[in-house]
Design a protein that fits this description.
Four copies of one chain form a homotetramer. Chain A contains 13 helices and 16 strands. Chain A has 345 residues and is of the alpha/beta class. In chain A, helix 9 links the parallel strand 11 (236-241) and strand 12 (256-264). The longest helix of chain A has 13 residues, at 150-162. The model of chain A has no long low-confidence stretch (mean pLDDT 97).
Chain lengths: 345, 345, 345, 345
Amino acid sequence: MKALVYHGAGKMSWEDKPKPSIQFATDAIVKISKTTICGTDLHIMKGDVPEVTDGRIIGHEGVGVIEEVGSAVSSFKKGDHVIISCITSCGKCGYCKKGMYSHCENGGWILGHLIDGTQAEYVRIPYADNSLFPIPAGADEEALVMLSDILPTGFECGVLNGQVKPGDTVAIVGAGPIGIATLLTAQFYTPAQIIMIDVDENRLNVTKTFGATSTINSQQSNVVEAVLSLTDGKGVDVAIEAVGIPATFELCEQIVTAGGHIANIGVHGKSVSLHLEDLWSKNITITTRLVDTVTTPMLFKTVQSGKLQPTHLITHHFKLDQIVEAYNVFANAAKEKALKVILTN
Amino acid sequence: MKALVYHGAGKMSWEDKPKPSIQFATDAIVKISKTTICGTDLHIMKGDVPEVTDGRIIGHEGVGVIEEVGSAVSSFKKGDHVIISCITSCGKCGYCKKGMYSHCENGGWILGHLIDGTQAEYVRIPYADNSLFPIPAGADEEALVMLSDILPTGFECGVLNGQVKPGDTVAIVGAGPIGIATLLTAQFYTPAQIIMIDVDENRLNVTKTFGATSTINSQQSNVVEAVLSLTDGKGVDVAIEAVGIPATFELCEQIVTAGGHIANIGVHGKSVSLHLEDLWSKNITITTRLVDTVTTPMLFKTVQSGKLQPTHLITHHFKLDQIVEAYNVFANAAKEKALKVILTN
Amino acid sequence: MKALVYHGAGKMSWEDKPKPSIQFATDAIVKISKTTICGTDLHIMKGDVPEVTDGRIIGHEGVGVIEEVGSAVSSFKKGDHVIISCITSCGKCGYCKKGMYSHCENGGWILGHLIDGTQAEYVRIPYADNSLFPIPAGADEEALVMLSDILPTGFECGVLNGQVKPGDTVAIVGAGPIGIATLLTAQFYTPAQIIMIDVDENRLNVTKTFGATSTINSQQSNVVEAVLSLTDGKGVDVAIEAVGIPATFELCEQIVTAGGHIANIGVHGKSVSLHLEDLWSKNITITTRLVDTVTTPMLFKTVQSGKLQPTHLITHHFKLDQIVEAYNVFANAAKEKALKVILTN
Amino acid sequence: MKALVYHGAGKMSWEDKPKPSIQFATDAIVKISKTTICGTDLHIMKGDVPEVTDGRIIGHEGVGVIEEVGSAVSSFKKGDHVIISCITSCGKCGYCKKGMYSHCENGGWILGHLIDGTQAEYVRIPYADNSLFPIPAGADEEALVMLSDILPTGFECGVLNGQVKPGDTVAIVGAGPIGIATLLTAQFYTPAQIIMIDVDENRLNVTKTFGATSTINSQQSNVVEAVLSLTDGKGVDVAIEAVGIPATFELCEQIVTAGGHIANIGVHGKSVSLHLEDLWSKNITITTRLVDTVTTPMLFKTVQSGKLQPTHLITHHFKLDQIVEAYNVFANAAKEKALKVILTN
C-alpha cells in the first residue's frame, strides 16, 4: 500500500509500505476513507517529537471501513464504517477505567507516533473495540473526521476543563483549528460572550461567523485592556490557551477574573511564569489535559442532531496521494486561509 | 482599651487606643476573650503588607462576647459568645452570593489589615450577621479560635481545592500550623496516605501523632525520589503547597501524578516556573484560593462531634497583655516548638 | 392605592388598600411597572393554599421602580429599576448561605402568600438587598418579568436538577408556561432531543417553534411507546415533570432510561406511586425543588446577551386595572391560547 | 467438582457438577478459596428471582486463584490471586465506558443468576480483565471477600449516592450486613452523626462499636420523633434505606431534612408511596442504584491502608462443603447473631 512516511526532520515521502496485518486478537485493520493533518503532524515533521523515528507512518485521525478484525473483537466486523480515535484505549487499565484514556497503560496517543498511523491506505488499530466508534449509514463521514481529535480536544481540554457555564464570559487565545473547535463546542453551554484573540485578521473574521461575540487582534490592540473593556473591568470567567507559547499562557493569567478558570490546550515546549504573587489569592483554577476522547460518543450525538457543524472546520480537499501538497498548504495556513484539510482515499 | 498597634516595619506596641463603637447599623462590637497570632501577622510586622499603615491594630482571629450590636443586626445580641471570622462578608454582593466571601466587595480580609483587628480588648466587626458565628454554651472556646482562620484555610484552600478522596495519596509540603491544619482536615476524606514534607524534624515528628502516614525531611532526602518510592513510582494524587516559595511549589509540580491536583495555600511573593513542557499532557489541576470561611459552620459541627480536635494546634498560652512576648515566641517557632499561641483577655 | 385582594375561595377584587410603608430597615417599597399571573395564583384563588387568608394582596412576580428604601438598604436607592424575585432571601441564615433561598428562615416564598404581594400599585419587599435585582437602562423590562419566577423555576427545578447535558434526550411532560420555560432554558445545555408531551395540540405546536425536536399528544398516542420509539428503545436521559399530578409523574418513571434523572417541578396535592420494584436497580435520580432564584443573575446575563428570549412566553397584555379580566383569560389558558400575561401599571 | 445447586424454590443441594472450562477468549477459570452468602441468595432460594432456573450454581462473591485464562486475557495469569466482582463488566459497551457496570450490555449481575456462580470449587469468570481484581501477596484474603459485593454496595448505593459530607447527620435504616457496610464506609466522609435504625437490639449494639453515634430501635420508639430529637428538629441530611420494604422507605421520606438525600439500597418487591404533596418543595434528591463495583480499586486501597476493617462484618466460618448448614445459620441471622459467613474451600 501507499503511505506518508517520516524520514527524519524535514523529510517525508508518499511511498510503498507493507499493508498492515492483525498482530493481536484485539486489533482491527481499517481501510482509510478520509484522513486529515494535525498541527502535531507539522511538529513531527520538523523533528520536534523525538519518539517518532525514521520509517514511521504519520497521522492519528480519520474514518474508514473495517477490513479485518482479530478474534477478540466483538463490536465491529468487516465492512463496518468507523471513526478512528486519536487515542487508543485498552479499556481495562486503571486509567481507562477512570475515563483517562490519554494515559492508557497500553495505548494513549500511539497512532502516527509510536506505531504506524492513518495517513496511509490502511492502518492497524489496537484495542479496536475501545478505540473505534461506529458510523451509521447515511452519516456525513467527512464531518466525522473532525471527531478523531480536534473536536474532542477543544471540548475536553478547553470547554469541559474550563467549566464553561451559561452566562459566562470566555476568551479563547488562538483562532487556529483547535481554537475554532473550542469556539464551536463552547457554545454547547451558552456563554454570554466568547472573545477570540489572534494575530490573523482572516481567522478572526471567520470566527465571527462561527459564534464569536467579539474578536481582538493582538497585534493591533492591547489585549488586556480590550478584554477588561469588554467585561466591565472584571476579566473573563474562562481563559482558554490554544497556542502553546509562554506569551499566550501568561496573557490568560492576566485576563482571568477572580474565581475563574484557565484551561490549557496548547502543546508547550518550555516553562511559563506563573504569577502566584498575584494569583495566590484570586481563587483560580488552571488545568492541563491531553485529550481523552471520552466525549466522542456525546459529540457524535450533537453532530447527528445538527447541533454541532464540524464542516465549519474544513477548508481544503485533496486526494490522499496529494498529501505532500496538502502538508504544504496546511503548513502555510495563514496565507492559504486553511483550517483543516480533508484527504480522500 | 489596650491593643497591639503596628507602627511601621519592625515596630509594634501594646498601647492605649479608643474603644471601638458602632459605625454602621450592621456592625457589632465584640469584647475579645481569646485571640491568636497568624503567620500573616509576622509578615505585616516585617512591613511586607504595605496596605497596613501606621496606627493599625493587628489580628484577624479570635472568639469573644458581643458587647453591642447595630440596629440592623438580627442574629446576635449583647452577651452572645461568638467566633470571629477572618473574612468579613456582606452577604449581598455577587461574590458573597457565590460563596466567595474572600472577594466580598464590601469586606473580604479587612480585619487587622484595612481596619482595626482582634489583638485588642475590643473589636468592631462589620456585617456582624454574616461575619460572626454563634458559640453555644459549654463549647471549648479555645479550640474554636482555630476556626477563625487556620482550619478553614487548610481545609478550603488545601483539602477541598485539592479534592482529596478516600484512598488517595496526599503530600503536604510544609508542616507549620497551616500544613498541620491541612493534615487534620484532610483526614475527613480518609486518604490512604498523607506524606508530610518539611525541614524541621520536630514538626515532622509532631505530624506523625496527628495522622501523617510518612514524613520526609527535605534537608536529608531527595524528596522526589522519596515520594516516588512511597507511591509505587507514580507520585501523589494531591500535592498541597503550604509554604509560599518557588522551590516548594515546583516540588509539587514534580511529585504530582497524572490526573492529580496541586492546591496552593502559601502566600507567594514572586512568580514560580510552571513546567508546562512536562505538565501540558498530564491532566493536572492547579488551584489558588484565599480562604472564604464558607465551611466554618461545617467545621464547627465536626469540632462539636469530636471528629476534629483543633487543640492539637495549640502549643503556647499567654495573657493578652503579654502579646509582645508571644510574638517573639511565634517568630521563633522552630526553636520554640510553637504552632499556635492562645492569648487570653 | 389599588390592589388585587383575595377574599376567600373564588372571591377576589380590585380595590383600595393602604399604600405599603417601610417596616424594617432592610425593606424597600417598589412601585410596580409590570406584573403577571402565575398558575399558583389560580390555586390560591380556588382556595387550595390555606395559608393565604382573607384580605391578602396576591402576586409574587414583577418589575418596578424603587420608591423608598429602609436605612440598612445599600444596594438600591429611590428611582432604581428592579426585578422582584418571587423568593425573599435574608442573605444570612444557614439556608441562604447554602444558596437554598427557597427555605430562607426569614423569607422564602412569602410575597402574595404570607405577606402582601405584587398585583398592586406598590409592594413592600423585605430584605431588599438580597431579594431585588437591578435593571440597567435600556433593558426590555417586560421580558425581565419572566425572571421573577417562571424562568428560574423551569431552569433550576427542571434543567439544573435534571442535569441536562449536551447530547442528552430530554422529555418535558407539560407544555404550559412552566414547561415552556424549561424548554427554553434546557437549550442552554444543547441536548440532542427535547420531546414535549401534553394534551393541548396548540401548545405542542408552539413548542416546535421554541426548540422542541418532537411532540407527543398524550391523548392521541401511547406516550411510553412513542418515547421509546424516538429513543432507540432506551427512554430519555432526563424526564421533567411540569404538571403536578400522579399520572404525569408516573409517566416519567416509565420513560426514564437506566442512569437517568426525573426532575419534578409540579406542585403536587397528593402522593404518587414510586415503582421501586422496577426502579431500585435502574440507577436513577429523582429530585424535587422549590425555586431558589439563585440563578437569576446568570439568567439575566443570558437575556442581555440575546441567548434567551423570554418574550416567547408572553401572549397577552392588559392594563393593571384590568387584572380581573386577565385572570379570566389565564384561567382558560388552553381556549385563549394563553401562556403568560403582562399587566402594566 | 462440587457446587451448591438451586433446584427450584426451597431446594438446593451440594452436589457434583462438571468443572467449568474456558468458553471465550476473555474468560478465566478461578479456583475458589473463600466465598460467602448474600441476602440475595436467600431470595433466590425462596424462588423470588425467577431468572434463576433449576440447575444453576448460586453465589456472586469470593476470592480465589486463577486456574486458567483465555487467550485474550492479559492482566491475569495462572496462579494469580484475585477478588471476584459480583458485577461482570465487558469494558467496552456504552454503560461500562460510563462506569455503570451494573448495566453492562454483556455482563452486569450474571454470576449465580444467569450463569453459574461462586458457591463451588471452580467458577468461570467472563471478561476476566475487567471483572477480577488482583490481590497482592500478604493481603488478608478473608477481608477481601467483602469487596466482591457488600462493601461496594453499601458505599456506592448508600454513601456515594447519598452524598455524605463532613459534618452531616446520616440515618441508616436497617442494621443488617448491608447497613453495616454502609456504616463502615460512611465514615470515610466524617459525618458528625450516624443514627442506626433497626428492630434487632443485638445488631444495634454491634453498630455502636463500629461507629454509630446513636441507635433507635423502631419497635420500641417513635422513630420520627427520635430522629427529630437527635437533630434539633431538622431531620437528617442523608437517609439511607437498607431494608427494601415500603415502611422503611417511607420512614426515610419522613426523616429527611429540606435539601437532603434519600439513597435507596434495598431490593424492593413492590411500589412505595412517594409523598410529593410534602416533598415537592423540600429540595430533596432520591437515588436508586444497582452496585457498579466501580469503587472496588479505591476500597481496596482503604483496606490495605488499614482505614477500612472489613472483618467487622464477618461473624461465622464454615468449610465450603458445610454450605447448606451455613445457609441455615445465615437465614436465621437475628437468632444466630450472624452478619457475613465465610466459606473456605
